[in-house]
Design goal:
- Residues 219-243 are annotated as: Disordered.
- With 243 residues, the protein is an alpha+beta fold.
- The chain has 5 helices and 10 strands, in the order ααααββαββββββββ.
- An 8-stranded antiparallel beta sheet has the order 7-6-9-10-3-4-5-8, with no helix packed on it. It has a two-stranded antiparallel ribbon with strand order 1-2.
């Protein structure tokens, strides 16, 4: 398995969807431990497919379904009951002029059905897993007290968990910032409504890195008018990748 910029997005999707065999899955997990680009792609894939998992309810696989599928593949003339329904016998169908391969078509159809079932089960298992953040930052106030935790997923999404009460005057707002690089300068990730925990969708940014600065400031209502921090710093901290 080759890991480069051209193959990593596809590998990440297949890993999240559960389409890799055990050996390939192990290879991806070992590579992800040392490959930040791969970890970021996996996190992005999980976030992208998560809405699909939230719109469906898991369904149990009917008992004996695999045996029924195998029976259908072995004997093209035997009706195969699926979930209480029965496929019509071939004799009941009017054969076409080129029907000499109808058993092959049935086998292909049943194989596709089996593959679809495997994919559905894989989606139910994979999409329910929580995406892992690329970096985590613990934000402290001047007294060294923990105020919030930032989980940056590397796909322009960050989860802010506020762990202390933040008093927000009516004409003020709480804004979250990060410093991707000194050249880029501080960038706003968004506002915390009422100073509480929130999941923020920020602008496109480089993949977060170790020791990247995150901070929370008190700004005018609606956020900083300059696009840079202008108010007092309520808490700040430096990020580290999770171990």
């Amino acid at each position: 398995m080759r890991f480069d910029n051209a193959t990593i997005p596809e590998i990440a999707d297949e890993y999240v969807l559960g389409l890799l065999d055990p050996a390939e899955q192990q290879a991806v997990e070992q590579e992800a431990d040392k490959n930040l680009t791969l970890r970021t792609a996996i996190a992005a894939s999980r976030e992208r497919y998560l809405p699909l998992d939230l719109t469906v309810e898991p369904a149990a696989v009917p008992a004996g379904l695999w045996g029924q599928i195998e029976a259908g593949l072995a004997d093209g003339d035997t009706p195969v009951p699926l979930g209480g329904a029965t496929l019509a016998p071939e004799a009941a169908l009017t054969p076409a002029a080129n029907d000499n391969r109808r058993f092959g078509w049935r086998a292909a159809a049943l194989s596709s059905m089996a593959a679809s079932l495997v994919l559905a089960v894989a989606l139910t298992w994979s999409l329910g897993r929580q995406a892992d953040p690329v970096v985590i930052a613990v934000l402290l106030n001047e007294a060294g007290e923990v105020q919030a935790v930032v989980e940056d997923f590397g796909n322009d999404t960050a989860q802010i968990r506020v762990l202390a009460d933040i008093s927000v005057p009516e004409d003020k707002a709480v804004e979250v910032w990060t410093l991707p690089s000194r050249e880029m300068g501080p960038v706003s990730l968004g506002l915390l409504e009422d100073g509480g925990s929130s999941r923020l969708e920020g602008p496109p940014l480089p993949v977060p890195r170790a020791a990247q600065l995150y901070e929370i400031t008190l700004e005018d209502a609606g956020g900083s008018p300059t696009g840079r921090p202008t108010g007092p710093v309520l808490a700040k901290g430096f990020a580290q990748p999770p171990r």
